[in-house]
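pinned: reference chain
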Amino acid sequence: MIRTGKRKIALTAVAGASVLALGLTACGAGGNDGSGADGDRALRVWAGSQTPITANYNPFAPTVLHGALGPIYEPLFFFNKTSDSEPEGMIGDTYEYNEDGTVITITIKPDLKWSDGEPLTAADVAFSFNYEANNPEGNGLVSAEATDDTTVVLTYSTAQFTTEFQRLGSTYILPEHIWADVDDYANFANEEPVGSGPYVVDKTTSESYTLVANENFRGADDLGVKKVQYIAVDNNQTAQDLLAAGKLDWTGMFIPNPDDVTANGAISWVNTPQDPTVLYTCSNAELGCSGPQTDVAVRQALNAAIDRGTIKDKAFVGLTGDISPTYALLPRDEKWVADSANELSPQKADAAEADSILEAAGYTKGSDGIYEKDGQKVELTLTSVDGWTDYNDAAKLIAEQAEAAGIKINASTVQWQEFSDSRQSGDFQLIVGGMVGTSVADPFQIYRDWFGGTTVGSTGPVGEEVPTGRWNFSRYNNPIVDQAVQSAISTDDEATKKELYGTIQTEIVRDLPYIPLVINATQTFYNTKDYTGWPTEDDLYAFPPSWGSIAAGYVLTHLQPAK
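pinned: its structure tokens
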């Protein structure tokens, strides 16, 4: 569902101290000083709970600032995850596969420059694909060679038809003259980044960071927004208040009553459910996870105990989409669902089913109504990020629903940094969190990045960070899934791919290393009074939220000050 809203009611009052403390640039929305979006007016953005801000523009760092991904660093091509459409050239101009899919020949646009004025050539692209952070173990890259200034030839050990987006749409292109000297990329803060995107860093403080137009950008003359200020706000409510007061122009966040921010006459909104919201479980005892959730029976029982319909209505006010346990995005990816029985996760709780699963696995219910086995109660800790009110409300509902099925869940909130550190290290039992949805109409990206095990380089033992560019925080490690993922990389045959996906789906629907909840309500709010060119329901040319990697930079290049 895509939903827009422009209804009007009374404006929510704003806590003045919250606004004044941020030191926002220029005037409020609508141009209270008459300047509108012209002149030195910065487009003001909230891109997430990163407070205080620490300068880190390394695209491979877990704590990278949002403005680095798209506005500063770019891949070769832009893939619009909201539609099944052809990619558009960014640095890249054209690409083609050889017959067996092992070689990709890429032509980049001529006369490109890095933001420091140095030439951007095919040699930089070849360097980027060979760079360790872009080339994890198991990537299959044999060679990346520049055959002239605008041509790069990528050669792989196996066909790469299914990894088109990973190779061409999410590999960040790096300037060799900077990154060739960066050996410890994991700890490189990159405070003065040199990129190819439309913006460069002007200033970074603990309260905000500001990007300004890159005069060497290939489309610099057409950039309507010359300055972008990313604001440090640590919770949804403060951001909502700032939006309503005209102190923010663009944000992706959950607001249960959009009227509270659209009443100022400047803000419009669009809802584009794309990304799964799930319970991360640290699921694999063999890789160091601990707790009752490492038992598949507990995960299955918890999955049965969840009332997704109630969570959708009460935590997300009906704005979310229904999720498939196959992680195919419906209806876009419905052709990839191998078994119709797995099309959707149950919407109603089934406590009796949860009881049956646990009792068959040897659990007995104690006098307090909580199941136990071998003297250990089924008691779990569930965390969500402090200030993410929709996720916090969902966590509370899940705890109530689980207790009705004999599972004790202690829900609590943590700061963003603690959340990020715990999921990276595996130091958690359950987390309410989001997945990065696929950027093309194919669930392969989730299967490899989130469910792939050690063989495909997507996870590792507890205590070690998940490999760069991969997201298997659950430590799930299933050789059957890994083999199917590896085979799917090499095929361009739809029937073969669907059979392989069916194998993966059978395994993950049973094992539930991530317990599916909803397709998240991705609301984007933007200032249509002072700026034009936003993605809309009628022209959804890009995924619209301000925190969207790559897409956010692409959206910025389409914006113009309103006349």
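why pinned: The two ends are 31 Å apart (CA to CA). Confidence is low (pLDDT under 50) at residues 1-35.
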